[in-house]
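Mods, move this if it's the wrong board.
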Amino acid sequence: MKYIIVGAGPGGLTFANRLMEKGEMDFLILEQEEEAGGLCRSKEVDGSPLDIGGGHFLDVKKSHVNEFLFQFMPKEEWEYFERDSKIWIHERLINSPIEANIWQMDEKDQVEYLKSIAIAGCNLNEPMPKKFIDWIYWKLGKKIAEDYMIPYNEKMFGKNLNELGVYWLEKLPNVSFDETLISCLQKKAYGIQPAHTQFYYPKKYGYGEIWRRMAEKLGDKIQYGIGAKSIDFEKRTVNGTYKGEIIINTAPWTAYERLDGLEEGLREEIKGLKYSSVVITYYEEMLDTKAHWIYYPDPKESFHRILVRHNFCKNSKGYWTETNIDRKEEKKGETSFENKFAYPLNTIGKREIMKKLLAWTEKRGVIGLGRWGEWEHYNSDVVVDLALKLADKLTLRGI
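Not the wrong board. C-alpha coordinates:
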Protein backbone atom coordinates (compact mmCIF):
# COMPACT_ATOMS: atom_id res chain seq x y z
CA MET A 1 0.00 0.00 0.00
CA LYS A 2 1.04 3.60 -0.29
CA TYR A 3 0.25 4.15 3.40
CA ILE A 4 0.23 1.58 6.20
CA ILE A 5 -1.33 3.15 9.31
CA VAL A 6 -0.73 1.46 12.64
CA GLY A 7 -3.63 2.11 15.04
CA ALA A 8 -7.28 3.10 14.58
CA GLY A 9 -7.41 5.67 17.36
CA PRO A 10 -8.19 9.37 16.74
CA GLY A 11 -4.89 9.94 14.91
CA GLY A 12 -5.08 6.99 12.54
CA LEU A 13 -8.79 7.47 11.83
CA THR A 14 -8.40 11.17 11.12
CA PHE A 15 -5.38 10.66 8.89
CA ALA A 16 -7.14 7.96 6.89
CA ASN A 17 -10.39 9.87 6.49
CA ARG A 18 -8.49 12.96 5.35
CA LEU A 19 -6.71 10.84 2.74
CA MET A 20 -10.10 9.58 1.49
CA GLU A 21 -11.41 13.14 1.45
CA LYS A 22 -8.55 14.01 -0.91
CA GLY A 23 -9.22 11.04 -3.16
CA GLU A 24 -6.34 8.90 -1.87
CA MET A 25 -7.56 5.31 -1.36
CA ASP A 26 -4.24 3.47 -1.32
CA PHE A 27 -3.97 2.89 2.43
CA LEU A 28 -4.68 0.32 5.13
CA ILE A 29 -5.12 0.63 8.91
CA LEU A 30 -3.99 -2.15 11.23
CA GLU A 31 -5.80 -2.21 14.58
CA GLN A 32 -5.05 -4.71 17.36
CA GLU A 33 -8.49 -4.42 19.00
CA GLU A 34 -11.76 -5.60 17.48
CA GLU A 35 -13.10 -2.04 17.33
CA ALA A 36 -11.72 1.43 16.62
CA GLY A 37 -11.25 4.41 18.93
CA GLY A 38 -8.20 3.57 21.03
CA LEU A 39 -8.31 5.27 24.43
CA CYS A 40 -11.48 7.08 23.34
CA ARG A 41 -13.64 3.95 23.04
CA SER A 42 -16.95 3.67 24.90
CA LYS A 43 -18.84 0.64 26.21
CA GLU A 44 -22.42 0.38 27.44
CA VAL A 45 -22.40 -0.07 31.22
CA ASP A 46 -25.52 -0.07 33.35
CA GLY A 47 -27.67 1.08 30.43
CA SER A 48 -25.51 4.04 29.36
CA PRO A 49 -22.17 4.62 27.63
CA LEU A 50 -18.98 4.76 29.67
CA ASP A 51 -15.65 5.95 28.27
CA ILE A 52 -13.27 3.11 29.07
CA GLY A 53 -10.06 5.12 28.61
CA GLY A 54 -10.91 7.86 31.12
CA GLY A 55 -12.40 11.29 30.65
CA HIS A 56 -12.45 12.43 27.02
CA PHE A 57 -14.22 15.54 25.74
CA LEU A 58 -14.13 17.59 22.56
CA ASP A 59 -12.66 21.02 23.22
CA VAL A 60 -14.46 23.82 21.37
CA LYS A 61 -11.36 25.93 20.63
CA LYS A 62 -10.15 24.38 17.36
CA SER A 63 -13.04 25.20 15.04
CA HIS A 64 -11.47 23.51 11.99
CA VAL A 65 -11.09 20.29 14.00
CA ASN A 66 -14.71 20.40 15.08
CA GLU A 67 -15.91 21.17 11.55
CA PHE A 68 -14.04 18.09 10.32
CA LEU A 69 -15.52 15.86 13.05
CA PHE A 70 -19.02 17.26 12.56
CA GLN A 71 -18.96 15.69 9.06
CA PHE A 72 -19.23 12.31 10.76
CA MET A 73 -21.36 13.32 13.74
CA PRO A 74 -23.30 16.55 13.14
CA LYS A 75 -23.08 19.39 15.63
CA GLU A 76 -26.73 18.96 16.64
CA GLU A 77 -25.80 15.56 18.09
CA TRP A 78 -23.42 17.21 20.57
CA GLU A 79 -24.21 18.98 23.85
CA TYR A 80 -22.26 22.12 24.72
CA PHE A 81 -20.95 22.46 28.30
CA GLU A 82 -19.24 25.11 30.38
CA ARG A 83 -16.61 23.21 32.33
CA ASP A 84 -17.33 22.57 35.99
CA SER A 85 -14.33 20.81 37.52
CA LYS A 86 -13.55 20.72 41.21
CA ILE A 87 -10.94 19.64 43.75
CA TRP A 88 -11.68 17.81 46.99
CA ILE A 89 -9.32 19.41 49.50
CA HIS A 90 -9.50 20.32 53.19
CA GLU A 91 -12.74 18.31 53.39
CA ARG A 92 -14.55 20.49 50.89
CA LEU A 93 -15.02 20.98 47.15
CA ILE A 94 -13.47 24.04 45.54
CA ASN A 95 -13.29 24.95 41.88
CA SER A 96 -10.29 24.06 39.75
CA PRO A 97 -7.62 25.32 39.20
CA ILE A 98 -6.61 25.60 42.84
CA GLU A 99 -4.51 28.76 42.49
CA ALA A 100 -7.51 30.69 41.15
CA ASN A 101 -9.94 29.50 43.81
CA ILE A 102 -8.17 29.68 47.16
CA TRP A 103 -10.84 32.22 48.12
CA GLN A 104 -13.32 29.32 48.41
CA MET A 105 -11.41 27.84 51.36
CA ASP A 106 -11.74 28.69 55.06
CA GLU A 107 -10.19 32.05 55.92
CA LYS A 108 -7.53 30.36 58.04
CA ASP A 109 -6.45 28.23 55.07
CA GLN A 110 -6.54 31.24 52.75
CA VAL A 111 -4.05 33.04 55.01
CA GLU A 112 -1.68 30.06 55.00
CA TYR A 113 -1.82 29.76 51.21
CA LEU A 114 -1.25 33.48 50.74
CA LYS A 115 1.78 33.43 53.04
CA SER A 116 3.17 30.47 51.09
CA ILE A 117 2.60 32.07 47.67
CA ALA A 118 4.25 35.31 48.81
CA ILE A 119 7.57 33.52 49.31
CA ALA A 120 7.37 31.13 46.33
CA GLY A 121 10.64 31.21 44.42
CA CYS A 122 9.12 32.60 41.23
CA ASN A 123 7.75 35.56 43.18
CA LEU A 124 11.17 36.22 44.76
CA ASN A 125 12.97 36.09 41.39
CA GLU A 126 14.91 32.99 42.39
CA PRO A 127 16.38 30.89 39.55
CA MET A 128 14.13 28.18 38.15
CA PRO A 129 14.98 24.68 39.51
CA LYS A 130 15.51 21.73 37.17
CA LYS A 131 13.93 18.98 39.34
CA PHE A 132 10.17 18.44 39.23
CA ILE A 133 9.45 18.65 42.96
CA ASP A 134 11.71 21.67 43.49
CA TRP A 135 10.05 23.33 40.50
CA ILE A 136 6.56 22.84 41.98
CA TYR A 137 7.62 24.50 45.24
CA TRP A 138 9.26 27.31 43.26
CA LYS A 139 6.28 27.89 40.99
CA LEU A 140 3.29 27.44 43.31
CA GLY A 141 4.53 27.76 46.88
CA LYS A 142 4.82 25.20 49.68
CA LYS A 143 1.10 24.85 50.48
CA ILE A 144 -0.16 24.20 46.95
CA ALA A 145 2.83 21.90 46.38
CA GLU A 146 2.28 19.77 49.47
CA ASP A 147 -1.51 19.86 49.69
CA TYR A 148 -2.28 19.32 46.01
CA MET A 149 0.32 19.16 43.24
CA ILE A 150 2.77 16.66 44.72
CA PRO A 151 0.27 14.16 46.14
CA TYR A 152 -1.95 14.38 43.05
CA ASN A 153 0.94 13.80 40.65
CA GLU A 154 2.28 10.95 42.79
CA LYS A 155 -1.11 9.28 42.59
CA MET A 156 -1.32 9.81 38.85
CA PHE A 157 2.28 9.19 37.73
CA GLY A 158 4.04 7.35 40.57
CA LYS A 159 6.20 8.17 43.55
CA ASN A 160 9.44 9.12 41.80
CA LEU A 161 8.36 12.51 40.49
CA ASN A 162 11.92 13.71 40.03
CA GLU A 163 12.13 11.37 37.02
CA LEU A 164 9.87 13.92 35.34
CA GLY A 165 11.21 16.98 33.58
CA VAL A 166 9.89 20.50 34.07
CA TYR A 167 9.64 21.47 30.38
CA TRP A 168 5.96 20.45 30.18
CA LEU A 169 5.02 22.60 33.19
CA GLU A 170 6.16 25.89 31.75
CA LYS A 171 2.63 26.62 30.50
CA LEU A 172 1.47 26.94 34.12
CA PRO A 173 1.11 30.64 34.96
CA ASN A 174 3.00 32.13 37.88
CA VAL A 175 0.84 32.34 40.99
CA SER A 176 0.86 36.06 41.72
CA PHE A 177 0.55 37.01 45.38
CA ASP A 178 -1.19 40.29 44.48
CA GLU A 179 -3.78 38.63 42.22
CA THR A 180 -4.42 35.82 44.71
CA LEU A 181 -4.92 38.32 47.52
CA ILE A 182 -7.34 40.35 45.40
CA SER A 183 -9.29 37.20 44.48
CA CYS A 184 -9.60 36.31 48.19
CA LEU A 185 -10.82 39.83 49.03
CA GLN A 186 -13.24 40.03 46.10
CA LYS A 187 -14.26 36.36 46.36
CA LYS A 188 -13.92 35.55 42.67
CA ALA A 189 -11.52 33.60 40.48
CA TYR A 190 -8.75 35.15 38.44
CA GLY A 191 -6.35 34.05 35.71
CA ILE A 192 -6.50 31.73 32.70
CA GLN A 193 -8.81 28.74 32.80
CA PRO A 194 -7.38 25.29 31.92
CA ALA A 195 -8.19 23.08 28.91
CA HIS A 196 -11.81 22.10 28.22
CA THR A 197 -13.16 25.36 29.66
CA GLN A 198 -15.95 24.79 27.15
CA PHE A 199 -16.46 21.38 25.59
CA TYR A 200 -18.80 19.20 23.57
CA TYR A 201 -20.03 15.74 24.56
CA PRO A 202 -22.44 13.54 22.56
CA LYS A 203 -26.11 13.90 23.55
CA LYS A 204 -27.03 10.23 23.15
CA TYR A 205 -23.73 8.39 23.11
CA GLY A 206 -20.32 8.09 24.72
CA TYR A 207 -17.29 9.85 23.29
CA GLY A 208 -16.40 6.68 21.41
CA GLU A 209 -19.31 7.17 18.99
CA ILE A 210 -17.53 9.74 16.84
CA TRP A 211 -14.57 7.38 16.28
CA ARG A 212 -16.88 4.42 15.60
CA ARG A 213 -18.55 6.40 12.83
CA MET A 214 -15.24 7.48 11.36
CA ALA A 215 -14.14 3.84 11.30
CA GLU A 216 -17.43 2.80 9.68
CA LYS A 217 -16.77 5.26 6.88
CA LEU A 218 -13.48 3.52 6.14
CA GLY A 219 -15.06 0.07 5.75
CA ASP A 220 -12.57 -2.64 4.85
CA LYS A 221 -9.70 -0.15 4.90
CA ILE A 222 -9.30 -1.22 8.56
CA GLN A 223 -8.15 -4.71 9.48
CA TYR A 224 -9.00 -5.54 13.09
CA GLY A 225 -7.34 -7.97 15.48
CA ILE A 226 -3.89 -7.31 14.04
CA GLY A 227 -1.41 -6.07 16.62
CA ALA A 228 1.71 -4.48 15.18
CA LYS A 229 4.58 -6.62 16.49
CA SER A 230 7.44 -5.36 14.34
CA ILE A 231 8.59 -2.67 11.95
CA ASP A 232 11.40 -3.26 9.46
CA PHE A 233 12.79 0.16 8.56
CA GLU A 234 14.81 -1.05 5.59
CA LYS A 235 11.99 -3.02 3.95
CA ARG A 236 9.32 -0.64 5.24
CA THR A 237 7.11 -3.42 6.46
CA VAL A 238 4.93 -4.06 9.51
CA ASN A 239 4.89 -7.63 10.88
CA GLY A 240 6.96 -8.64 7.85
CA THR A 241 3.71 -8.75 5.84
CA TYR A 242 2.31 -5.27 5.30
CA LYS A 243 4.50 -3.06 3.14
CA GLY A 244 3.99 0.67 2.69
CA GLU A 245 5.72 3.51 0.91
CA ILE A 246 4.96 5.40 4.13
CA ILE A 247 4.20 3.90 7.54
CA ILE A 248 2.22 6.09 9.95
CA ASN A 249 2.79 4.88 13.49
CA THR A 250 0.31 5.85 16.22
CA ALA A 251 1.22 2.93 18.51
CA PRO A 252 3.60 3.12 21.50
CA TRP A 253 7.18 2.60 20.30
CA THR A 254 7.94 0.48 23.35
CA ALA A 255 5.09 -1.94 22.53
CA TYR A 256 6.88 -3.35 19.48
CA GLU A 257 8.64 -6.68 19.92
CA ARG A 258 11.09 -5.81 17.14
CA LEU A 259 12.23 -2.64 15.44
CA ASP A 260 14.46 -4.13 12.76
CA GLY A 261 17.21 -1.89 11.49
CA LEU A 262 16.76 0.73 14.20
CA GLU A 263 20.02 2.45 15.04
CA GLU A 264 21.52 0.79 18.11
CA GLY A 265 21.86 4.00 20.09
CA LEU A 266 18.20 4.81 19.55
CA ARG A 267 17.22 1.26 20.48
CA GLU A 268 18.77 1.82 23.89
CA GLU A 269 17.37 5.32 24.30
CA ILE A 270 13.73 4.40 23.68
CA LYS A 271 13.95 1.95 26.55
CA GLY A 272 13.90 5.10 28.68
CA LEU A 273 10.43 6.09 27.40
CA LYS A 274 7.98 5.62 30.27
CA TYR A 275 4.21 5.62 30.65
CA SER A 276 1.54 5.15 33.28
CA SER A 277 -1.36 2.69 33.24
CA VAL A 278 -4.82 3.36 34.65
CA VAL A 279 -7.92 1.43 35.58
CA ILE A 280 -11.39 2.94 35.06
CA THR A 281 -13.99 1.71 37.56
CA TYR A 282 -17.74 2.36 37.44
CA TYR A 283 -19.99 3.05 40.46
CA GLU A 284 -23.77 3.43 40.20
CA GLU A 285 -24.07 5.94 43.07
CA MET A 286 -25.54 9.36 42.18
CA LEU A 287 -23.35 12.13 43.57
CA ASP A 288 -24.84 15.37 44.88
CA THR A 289 -22.73 17.70 42.74
CA LYS A 290 -22.99 19.54 39.44
CA ALA A 291 -19.31 19.00 38.70
CA HIS A 292 -18.28 17.15 35.56
CA TRP A 293 -15.13 15.80 37.18
CA ILE A 294 -13.38 16.08 40.55
CA TYR A 295 -9.68 15.80 41.45
CA TYR A 296 -8.66 13.97 44.63
CA PRO A 297 -5.13 14.66 45.90
CA ASP A 298 -5.78 12.87 49.22
CA PRO A 299 -3.36 9.86 49.34
CA LYS A 300 -5.92 7.89 51.37
CA GLU A 301 -8.10 7.59 48.27
CA SER A 302 -6.70 5.15 45.70
CA PHE A 303 -8.10 7.06 42.69
CA HIS A 304 -6.88 10.49 41.56
CA ARG A 305 -10.06 11.74 39.90
CA ILE A 306 -13.68 10.86 39.23
CA LEU A 307 -15.88 11.62 36.22
CA VAL A 308 -19.47 12.34 37.24
CA ARG A 309 -21.20 10.65 34.31
CA HIS A 310 -24.75 11.76 35.08
CA ASN A 311 -23.71 15.43 34.78
CA PHE A 312 -22.57 15.27 31.15
CA CYS A 313 -23.95 12.01 29.71
CA LYS A 314 -27.73 12.34 29.43
CA ASN A 315 -30.06 9.73 30.94
CA SER A 316 -27.19 8.01 32.72
CA LYS A 317 -26.32 7.47 36.35
CA GLY A 318 -23.27 7.03 38.51
CA TYR A 319 -19.65 7.98 38.08
CA TRP A 320 -16.34 6.35 37.27
CA THR A 321 -12.95 6.65 38.92
CA GLU A 322 -9.54 6.86 37.29
CA THR A 323 -6.76 5.15 39.23
CA ASN A 324 -3.10 4.48 38.52
CA ILE A 325 -2.94 0.71 38.08
CA ASP A 326 -0.24 0.45 40.76
CA ARG A 327 -2.79 1.76 43.28
CA LYS A 328 -5.66 -0.46 42.12
CA GLU A 329 -7.75 -2.00 44.89
CA GLU A 330 -9.46 -5.26 44.04
CA LYS A 331 -13.16 -5.23 44.92
CA LYS A 332 -15.75 -7.80 43.92
CA GLY A 333 -18.63 -6.91 41.65
CA GLU A 334 -17.06 -3.79 40.13
CA THR A 335 -17.09 -3.01 36.42
CA SER A 336 -13.63 -1.87 35.44
CA PHE A 337 -11.40 -1.43 32.39
CA GLU A 338 -7.60 -1.50 32.39
CA ASN A 339 -5.58 0.71 30.04
CA LYS A 340 -1.92 -0.30 29.89
CA PHE A 341 -0.87 2.67 27.78
CA ALA A 342 -2.75 5.61 29.30
CA TYR A 343 -0.36 8.55 29.70
CA PRO A 344 3.11 9.02 28.21
CA LEU A 345 5.36 10.37 30.97
CA ASN A 346 7.31 13.57 30.44
CA THR A 347 10.53 12.20 31.85
CA ILE A 348 13.86 14.02 31.84
CA GLY A 349 15.40 13.68 28.39
CA LYS A 350 12.21 12.47 26.70
CA ARG A 351 12.00 15.36 24.27
CA GLU A 352 15.57 14.83 23.13
CA ILE A 353 14.97 11.09 22.66
CA MET A 354 11.81 11.67 20.63
CA LYS A 355 13.36 14.40 18.52
CA LYS A 356 16.18 12.05 17.47
CA LEU A 357 13.89 9.04 17.03
CA LEU A 358 11.28 10.81 14.90
CA ALA A 359 13.89 12.50 12.71
CA TRP A 360 15.63 9.13 12.13
CA THR A 361 12.44 7.20 11.38
CA GLU A 362 10.97 9.87 9.09
CA LYS A 363 14.04 9.70 6.86
CA ARG A 364 13.17 6.04 6.43
CA GLY A 365 9.50 6.63 5.65
CA VAL A 366 8.09 5.89 9.12
CA ILE A 367 6.28 8.83 10.74
CA GLY A 368 5.18 8.99 14.38
CA LEU A 369 1.76 10.57 14.97
CA GLY A 370 -0.32 11.41 18.02
CA ARG A 371 -0.12 10.68 21.74
CA TRP A 372 1.98 7.54 21.36
CA GLY A 373 3.64 8.07 18.02
CA GLU A 374 5.04 11.34 19.35
CA TRP A 375 4.99 10.33 23.04
CA GLU A 376 3.17 13.52 24.06
CA HIS A 377 0.18 13.89 26.40
CA TYR A 378 -2.11 15.22 23.66
CA ASN A 379 -5.88 15.56 23.99
CA SER A 380 -7.89 14.10 21.12
CA ASP A 381 -8.58 17.48 19.47
CA VAL A 382 -4.83 18.12 19.25
CA VAL A 383 -4.28 14.66 17.73
CA VAL A 384 -6.96 15.32 15.10
CA ASP A 385 -5.33 18.64 14.25
CA LEU A 386 -1.90 17.00 13.86
CA ALA A 387 -3.33 14.19 11.72
CA LEU A 388 -5.11 16.63 9.40
CA LYS A 389 -1.95 18.66 8.94
CA LEU A 390 0.15 15.58 8.27
CA ALA A 391 -2.27 14.20 5.69
CA ASP A 392 -2.47 17.59 3.99
CA LYS A 393 1.32 17.90 3.91
CA LEU A 394 1.95 14.43 2.49
CA THR A 395 -0.76 14.62 -0.17
CA LEU A 396 0.32 18.13 -1.17
CA ARG A 397 3.82 16.83 -1.72
CA GLY A 398 2.44 13.90 -3.67
CA ILE A 399 4.01 11.47 -1.22
